[in-house]
């Protein structure tokens, strides 16, 4: 058979090889071909067993996310998995590389599994606000028990085939290619004439009381929640209580309901956006340079050094405090079991003094390196306006793993592409910011617009705490005033001047709440006072706060404070898009979710605006226009979207 399934007959065993770029995603075409190949194998006299395997780097990455936003083409995964489980001849799955999502469902439906030791398995649906389909919630508990099944599905993490929790899944784990061993096992089962189907597995159900304890423990943790996690718990409970066929039907109902939920659509959006973000034209235009030795010039770059060391890079620096800072951080990782002592020693061995020879120097403002060294400015919080090429690593770098690459028309494409490749290799999601259109930077502008809006509302009588609460209702983990305290108010003041100029707004003046706090020496968390007091137990409103402030309706009329913040952010975003500062709108959602703690379950602020509807946004802009500030001017792009019935991502709203 040609196409996306390659077929080979070995000693009466039909090897069906999934063969579709990229990562053997289970497209509708591949599923149809696989169903046809199974139909042929079921009736072919020369076939006595079947092995399912994947070509290339892995078994299968599952269903392409884009399919979930439309109608699900037949044959769907659940029907295909039932076909495999009920197959009249033994079916063995040979697993190597990634086996994710619906790929895992196929493997569990097989009558046995043989895995290469480095194979990786995951049920990542929870990270997309979804419930696993294809019978995973029913087969996995039967094979592994409730506790392990819930750990796998609720964490959504990738596990090695050698993980002790997964040992019951496999007939064999081998260091070699699993395909020959799978063919041998298939032949033996065919000779025996009997084999066990997953629905017949009882070991995971052998301790009913323990199964219920695992259910009760998770139920207590999820008390009051009503999302994908609670649905997964209900499905795993059903695996013990219902006959297998009814359990599958229950899972299918939960899957369909959760698939269409706003949370699932939002999380699929941001998941896909993260994977698109790093695509940039320079990567196709120029040869990539290897960057393995990197100098860091500047202060307080310990987190950047950790990111590079974890990525296997040699890091050089003359900063006197860097080694001590990195050593303390690594000691903490060892203490908490995150890394081994040997890994710590290897990292420290690659941290050396001096600034040469290196392949690249990352330099904060005011730091210098030798003229002959390839040097790229590193944003220290004040932006990268004017730099032909620059990098902003969102901090802490080794935790957030997010970067903006500022690229001008005069930048060397080879260097830009090499920096992009460096970030990708470090596991950093990268967004391209076109200069000079992006001015101080994409994230600085978006969050700066939120901060300027918040300052305006406080100037008119709202309290910082009320504005921060509004930002949290909008989807931010923390509001703009708490974020400003964490960054340091002097740094924020300088940055907001640049952002205001880019937006065409008046910069914060002497009568502004920010200037007032600075005049009182309240410069942020570092000194314990900013817009909040910062005692050791955590931030709290200042003791001298004078009353609750004005009613929001007196200040904003019919517009809720959270929607005023949303309007400022959307207004800045459409300016970035109109000026060509960013490649795609979804890149801005990635920055806000990954860099500023916007709720992932809402898909990012632009996706949330889309879901709310551009007409509602336009009405807010018109209502806020009486404030007489460019921050809330009606954006022509929003007007055009409403006229055309479109949203930020081309969606129409009824």
Write the topology of this structure:
Blueprint: E1 5-10, E2 13-18, H1 28-43, E3 49-54, H2 77-85, E4 91-95, E5 98-100, H3 102-109, E6 112-116, E7 120-122, H4 136-144, H5 146-155, E8 159-160, E9 172-174, H6 178-192, H7 208-221, H8 228-241, H9 244-259, H10 262-277, H11 282-285, E10 293-297, H12 302-310, E11 314-316, H13 322-335, H14 341-349, E12 351-352, E13 360-363, E14 375-377, E15 389-393, H15 397-400, E16 402-408, H16 413-425, E17 429-435, H17 442-459, H18 464-474, H19 480-487, H20 489-503, H21 513-519, H22 552-556, H23 561-578, H24 585-596, H25 605-612, H26 614-624, H27 636-644
Parallel strand pairs: 2-3, 3-4, 4-6, 5-7, 6-9, 10-11, 10-13, 11-12, 13-14, 16-17
Antiparallel strand pairs: 1-2, 7-8, 15-16
Helix pairs in contact: 1-2, 2-3, 4-5, 4-8, 5-8, 7-8, 8-9, 10-24, 12-13, 17-20, 17-23, 17-24, 18-23, 23-26, 25-26, 26-27
Describe the structure in your own words.
The longest helix has 18 residues, at 442-459. It contains 27 helices and 17 strands. The protein folds into 3 domains: 5-260, 2-enoyl-CoA Hydratase, Chain A, domain 1, CATH 3.90.226; 282-438, NAD(P)-binding Rossmann-like Domain (Rossmann fold, 3-Layer(aba) Sandwich), CATH 3.40.50.720; 443-580 and 583-644, N-(1-d-carboxylethyl)-l-norvaline Dehydrogenase, domain 2. A 6-stranded mixed beta sheet has the order 1-2-3-4-6-9, with helices on both faces. It has a 5-stranded parallel beta sheet with strand order 12-11-10-13-14. It is of the alpha/beta class and 654 residues long. 46% of the residues lie in helices and 11% in strands. The relative contact order is 0.07. Strand 16, helix 16 and strand 17 form a beta-alpha-beta unit. Helix 10 packs across helix 24. The chain starts with a strand and ends in a 10-residue tail after the last helix. It holds the Pfam family ECH_1. Residues 530-550 are annotated as: Disordered. One of its GO terms (molecular function) is enoyl-CoA hydratase activity. Monomer. Its EC number is 4.2.1.17.
């Amino acid at each position: 058979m040609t196409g996306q399934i390659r077929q080979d007959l070995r000693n009466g065993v039909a090897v069906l090889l999934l063969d579709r770029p990229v990562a053997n995603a289970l497209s509708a075409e591949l599923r149809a071909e696989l169903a046809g190949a199974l139909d042929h194998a079921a009736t072919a006299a020369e076939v006595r067993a079947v092995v399912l395997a994947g070509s290339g780097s892995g078994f299968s990455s599952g269903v392409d996310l884009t399919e979930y936003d439309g109608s699900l083409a037949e044959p769907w995964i659940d029907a295909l998995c039932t076909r495999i489980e009920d197959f009249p001849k033994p079916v063995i799955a040979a697993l190597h590389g990634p086996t994710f999502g619906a790929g895992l469902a196929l493997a569990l439906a097989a009558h046995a599994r043989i895995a290469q030791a480095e194979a990786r398995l995951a049920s990542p649906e929870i990270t997309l606000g979804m419930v696993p389909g294809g019978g995973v919630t029913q087969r996995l508990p039967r094979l592994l028990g409730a506790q392990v099944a819930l750990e796998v599905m609720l964490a959504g993490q990738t596990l090695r085939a050698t993980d002790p929790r997964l040992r019951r899944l496999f007939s064999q784990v081998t260091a070699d290619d699993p395909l020959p061993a799978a063919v041998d096992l298939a032949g033996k089962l065919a000779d025996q004439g009997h084999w066990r189907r997953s629905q017949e597995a009882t070991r995971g159900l052998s301790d009913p009381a323990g199964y219920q304890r695992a259910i009760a423990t998770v139920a207590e943790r999820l008390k009051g929640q009503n999302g994908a996690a609670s649905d997964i718990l209900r499905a795993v409970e059903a695996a013990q209580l219902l006959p297998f066929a009814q359990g599958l039907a229950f899972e299918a109902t939960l899957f369909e309901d959760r698939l269409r939920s706003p949370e699932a659509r939002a999380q699929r959006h941001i998941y896909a956006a993260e994977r698109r973000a790093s695509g940039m034209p320079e990567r196709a235009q120029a040869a990539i340079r290897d960057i393995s030795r990197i100098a860091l010039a500047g202060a307080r770059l310990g987190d950047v050094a950790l990111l590079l060391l974890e990525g296997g890079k040699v890091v050089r620096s003359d900063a006197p405090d860097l080694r001590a800072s990195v050593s303390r951080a690594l000691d903490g990782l060892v203490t908490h079991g995150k890394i081994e002592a040997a890994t710590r020693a290897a990292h420290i061995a690659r941290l050396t003094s001096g600034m040469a020879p290196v392949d690249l120097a990352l330099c904060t403002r005011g730091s210098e390196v030798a003229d002959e060294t390839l040097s790229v400015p590193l944003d220290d919080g004040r932006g990268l306006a004017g730099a032909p090429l620059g990098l902003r690593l969102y901090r802490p770098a080794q935790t957030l793993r997010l970067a903006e690459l500022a690229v001008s028309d005069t930048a060397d494409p080879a260097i830009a592409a090499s920096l992009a490749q460096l970030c990708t290799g470090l596991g950093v999601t990268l967004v391209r910011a076109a200069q000079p259109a992006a001015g101080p930077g994409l994230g600085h502008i978006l969050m700066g617009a939120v901060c300027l809006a918040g300052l305006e509302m406080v100037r008119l009588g709202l309290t910082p705490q009320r504005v921060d609460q509004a930002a949290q209702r909008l989807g931010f983990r923390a509001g703009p005033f708490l974020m400003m305290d964490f960054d340091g108010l002097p740094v924020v003041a300088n940055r907001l001047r640049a952002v205001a100029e880019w937006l065409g707004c008046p910069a914060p003046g002497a009568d502004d709440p920010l200037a007032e706090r600075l005049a009182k020496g309240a410069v942020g968390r570092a000194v314990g006072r900013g817009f909040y007091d910062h005692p050791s137990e955590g931030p709290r409103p200042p003791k001298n706060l004078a009353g609750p402030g004005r009613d929001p309706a007196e200040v904003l009329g019919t517009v809720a404070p959270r929607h005023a913040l949303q309007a400022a952010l959307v207004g800045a975003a459409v300016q970035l898009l109109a000026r060509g500062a960013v490649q795609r709108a979804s890149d801005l959602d990635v920055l806000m979710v990954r860099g500023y703690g916007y709720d992932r379950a809402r898909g990012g602020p632009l996706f949330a605006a889309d879901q709310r509807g551009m007409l509602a946004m336009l009405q807010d802009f018109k209502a806020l226009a009486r404030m007489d500030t460019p921050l809330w001017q009606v954006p022509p792009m929003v007007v055009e979207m409403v006229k055309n019935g479109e949203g930020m991502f081309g969606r129409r709203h009824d």
